[in-house]
Every structure is written in C-alpha cells, then in structure tokens.
Amino acid sequence: MRQIVFLFLMVLMVSNCQKKEKTGTLQQPQDMAREVVEETFRTWQSYRQYAWGHDVLRPLTKSYQDWYAEPLYISPIDAYSTLHLMGLTEETRRIEKYVVDSLDFDKDIDAKIFEVNIRILGGLLAMYEHSRNEQVLDKARNFANRMLPAFDTKTGIPKYWVNLKTGKARGDTVNVAEAGTYTFEMGLLSYYTKDAKYYQAAKRATLAIYKRYSGLGLPGDVIDVESGEWVSSSSHICAGVDSYYEYLYKSFLMFGDPDLGQIWEKSVAKIHQYIAEEHDGKLWYGRVDMHTGKHISASITLYDAFFPAILALSGDIDRAKRLQETWNWLWNSFGLEPMVYNYKTGQPTYPAYDLNPEIIESAYYLYHLTGDKKYLKMNIKFWEDIKKYCKTDGGFASIEDVRTMKQKDYMPTFFFAETLKYLYLTFTHDQGKFDFDDHLFNTEAHHFKKSNFDYPEAKIRLGY
Ligand code: DMJ
C-alpha cells in the first residue's frame, strides 16, 4: 500500500514538473516583457551599485571598467532611451540630472569617433528627443563640436580618434563604418539646432566613400582618410562596413535627402549582385574583391545580422526572411552566435558572443512587418538562451567561447541600449504601445519619431 501511495506521489510530481516546463515555454509575451523589464532594472541597479559614474559594468567581479583614462558615462547615456521606453522614470531623471549637472566633456582623452558618435551623441540626442531639456541639447552640441575637428581631413572622412579637450585628431586609416556612420546623428543635431554644419560634415564623409566605389559599384573596407586610397579592397556588409549601408537608408528615410536614397538603391543592388551567395541551401553574404567581384572569403560576423532588418524596412521582405533563417540556424547551431564564423568550413574563427542585438533586432522588424509569430518565437528563444548562458548575479556577462559558454567579465553598453530594448519591443508589440512605423532607430537603437522631422524643413536646416 505504501508503495502505491509513493508511486502515486511520484506520478503527480512528474506531471507537475511537465506542466511547469510547458507553461515555461508557452509563456505569454506580456510575461516575457515584464521579465525583460525586471531584468533590465536588476542589471541597472547592479550598474548603479558597482559602476556608477563609469563606462561599463563588469558583472562577474561586480566592478567597473572605463574605455579611456577618464570615464565618459557611456552605459547610462546608452541605457537612457531603453529605460525611458520601459517607463523607468526615476532612473531616467537621475541620468538626465547627472548629465546636466556633472558631465563635462572637457577631458584630455582621445575618443574613438565612431563609437562615441553612435553611443554618446546618439544617446544624448535621444535624451533630448524624449525630455526636450535644452540643457541636454547643449551637452549634445558641445560633444559634437568636440568631434568635428576629426572631419577636417583632405577627403572629409574623419580620423579614427579625436582628443576631446584639444581637438587634435589622429589615425589615418578607418573602415567604411567608421567613415560613414554619422549622417543620422549629425542630421538630427542639425535639425534641432538649425545649424547645417554637422550634417554637412557627415554627408561629405559619406560621399567621399561613394566617390571611391570601384567600377563594379562596390566599396572596399579600409581607407586612408588623407589620400583617399583604399587600404583593403575587400567588399562586404560585415562588421567594419555594416552601419554605413544602414545609415544611407535610414538617414534618407528620416530627412528625405535624395542623394542618400539613390546611393542606397545603387549600393544594395550591387550587394545582391556580387556579395550574396547560396551555400548549403542557405543565403549568405561573404566577402568579394571590390574590383573583380570574385569571392575571397566566407568569413562573416554576427553584426551582419542587422541586414535582414534593413532589407525588411526597405520592402525586400523575401530576402530578409531568407537571411534571417540563416542567422537563426547559426544561433541554434551553437546556442548563441559566434562573433566570426566561416560558412564554408563551418567553423567559428572568433567564438565570442558579446550580448549583441542584431539577430534580435531583425526578428523584431520581421515580426512587425510580417506579423508572423515565428519571429516572436525566435526572440523568445534568443532571450531564453541569453538568460541560460549569460545571466549572472551582477547582471549579464558576455561569452568568451560559444562552444564552452565560458563567461567573461564585461557587459557592453549596447546590451542596455539595444538587446534589452528590442526584446522588450518584441514582447510588447501586440499591446500596440509603440508605433514602429513612426520611428527610426540609430545603429545603437536610440529611437526617434519620424513625424518630428519634416522633409522641407530638413532640407533647409540640414542644407542639402
Ligand atoms: C553596436 O554598437 C552598434 O549596433 C554598431 O553599429 C555595431 N554593433 C554593435 C552591437 O553589436
């Protein structure tokens, strides 16, 4: 008799466990959204406790790291627009107050112009967009003025570094993303301040890249900012070029500058013609020689997963869907994506995963633009995997190697700005609170309302 009771209890326990597992996987999007907000808040509290005033949280040792000799407050500036979207107002007020009262950019440090543009300038502009605090706009303008000396080169392409105090710039070779990812932020700033000089500098740099396309209509990937000569003739959409293409289309959409729209159209046609290839029944975008169009490498980076989003946004839903399948396959082959992967050898050549957002961003765009629940499910799966492998006591940690899932003591600022935001937007999508069609995101996921920017007015203020 005791044995029967014991067996009965066991069966009850097992069926309860199965039920839990089931409800676990069948969690409703609103529950997932709540969880993302809780996790964002928990991680933000950890940043505040262990890294306040510094650039980056180190989640394993519960400490901090700065990018340069002096901190630039990059995590909070990057986190602001996400915290704002999630309604964490006490936190956004705290950041805004710190930026206005205590943040001083007059620092004798050489800042990497590409990174500080998308994170600091982009973040401050988003803070202004959402708060309309003129002191925040002053900070953004002050920061951009410190960036501008970098653009003072023979080609107009900015140098790699600029000293925020002295304006002395250095670093003559930059990649295409570092050359041409400025029109969006600088365009916003020109619009807000009615001073065209920001957009003009950014556009000149973008045109300098376009002018140097090969006869096939392709850019290389590394260029000398003074001579305008290509240092590398490898043409691709991977890390090092990615956001150049992204900004051609997004800045065109935001400000209506037809030059950028035309360059986007011409460029994307060549990308599909020369760079796309089928391998093992999947669509890939590898690397070709800009002069011959010959495929030279099958090495791709996880950053390239931004491309389905921009393809979908531009109306090319079929290609976007096919490419997203490729990325989904790669993620699920490892449980997280490797930073660099060779699709012909099937090997990750740099196996890290740094909590990057791109595949999640593309699933979000496709969920909105197709309504297909499969993309919601993708982001549920990506979130489950991130929690499984990256969640720590002190926040979330990057992964050193997706084959072993060994964690590393670093949480990039874009985890706040992008990854958590795109997850939240996906899981709240069906509540209809956020109007995707009236927003554009900079490459760091800071969001801006399209209807706040009028094309005829932009033409005047940006001077195109
Ligand atoms: C972000 O800093 C930006 O999205 C950038 O354009 C490249 N990717 C990282 C995050 O992966």
Helix content: 40-55%
Shape: globular
Strand content: 5-15%
Largest sheet properties:
3 strands, antiparallel
What are the bound molecules? 1-deoxymannojirimycin
Mean pLDDT: 95
Output the structural class.
alpha+beta
Named CATH topology of the largest domain: Glycosyltransferase
Number of strands: 22
* Gyration radius, rounded: 23 Å
Q: How many structurally independent domains? A: 2
CATH class of the largest domain: Mainly Alpha
Low-confidence stretches: 1-24
Spatially, the strands of the biggest sheet line up as 3-4-5
**Cα separation of the termini:** 87 Å
The CATH architecture of the largest domain comes to Alpha/alpha barrel
Total number of helices: 17
Task: Describe the structure in your own words.
Residues 1-24 have low confidence and may be disordered. 50% of the residues are buried. Helix content is 53%, strand content 14%. It is built from 17 helices and 22 strands. The chain starts with a helix and ends with a helix. The strands form nine sheets. It has a three-stranded antiparallel β-sheet with strand order 3-4-5. A three-stranded antiparallel β-sheet has the order 6-7-8. The chain has a three-stranded antiparallel β-sheet with strand order 9-12-13, with no helix packed on it. The longest helix is centred in the N-terminal third of the chain and has 24 residues, at 2-25. Helix 12 (307-313) packs antiparallel against helix 13 (317-334). The protein is globular. It has helices at 2-25, 29-51, 74-85, 89-102, 113-131, 134-147, 176-179, 183-193, 197-211, 242-255, 258-275, 307-313, 317-334, 358-370, 373-390, 414-427, 455-462, and strands at residues 56-58, 63-65, 110-112, 161-163, 169-170, 173-175, 222-224, 230-232, 234-235, 276-279, 282-285, 287-289, 295-297, 299-301, 340-342, 347-350, 391-392, 395-396, 398-401, 406-408, 439-441, 447-449. It folds into two domains: 27-66 and 310-341 and 348-439, Glycosyltransferase, CATH 1.50.10; 89-297, Glycosyltransferase, CATH 1.50.10.10. A hairpin with a 5-residue loop joins strand 21 (439-441) and strand 22. The chain is an alpha+beta fold and 464 residues long. Bound molecules: 1-deoxymannojirimycin (DMJ). 1-deoxymannojirimycin is lined by residues 118, 243, 303, 356-358, 414, 443-444.
